[in-house]
Amino acid sequence: MLYPHLGFPLTYLWKRRCSETSWKGAVKGISRECYLFDTHDSFSLHQFFGIGGVAQVILGKGEFGKYLSINLAFGIGVTMGIHAAGGISGAHMNASISFTHCVLGNLPWRKLPAYIIGQFLGSFLAASLVFCMYYDALCEYSNGHFIVMGPNGTAGIFATYPAPYMTLLGGFFLATTVLMLCILAIYDKKNNGALEGTQPVITGLLVLVIGMTMGINTGYAINPSRDLPPRIFTAIAGWGIEVFRAGDYWWWVPLVAPTLGSLVGALAYKLLIDFHNQSALEGGDKKGKDNLQTNHV
User: Which residues cross the membrane (predicted)?
Assistant: First the structure.
């Protein structure tokens, strides 16, 4: 095909443009899939701060922080993660949240694998960095033996394990139900949501209060992306396969329970709040139109 006024093939222009912009297209493609961005905020901020906070409290034997320090570390980490990548990827930092957004239609299903891969890689890297940073302290604390649970257990720094009295049924999804319901409320512009720009802080406070009120049973077992990758890392780093056997094979609960809880939280918000809010908005719009017509007459 030729340009009539220039006399050279259109295919030449097309090939030239593709060669000039192929690298730009690749970068934009990665950006659109949000792979690197969710890796960044999950790894360098949320997970690193949270796991690091747990390590300092446990390895410091209470001299360098208490349980509240862990809650603050995770909460502030969430806030920083949202500030870093919220405008790009949404900064889900939680595979259950990403999955639920796909179910709600807020996120295309084709993007879900990229989100989960990014979150899992970021969490694995966070665990490895905290391990390297506190390696000497870990060896000192446990006399060189990496133990999963018990008085000298250190695997709980990286992943969640149930309290001795916990059953598998008792470890299920209430905390993630509350998390998802509140997140939808915070970001719902049709409702009385948080003011623009304050959502990261309020979301961080939400994670803080969940840890303060529901953390005694299982810790922060509300996020598959926070739990499985560090657990895999500890299995590789010296704790062994026991990290999957501990707590009556507890490892699968932080994967399934948060996902179910997130779906229940979304359903509860839709039925109990959003459905009625939509009806009120429609009624308000109709009333406004009637008033407009009356004024016009």
Answer: 43-60, 72-92, 112-134, 146-163, 169-188, 200-222, 249-269
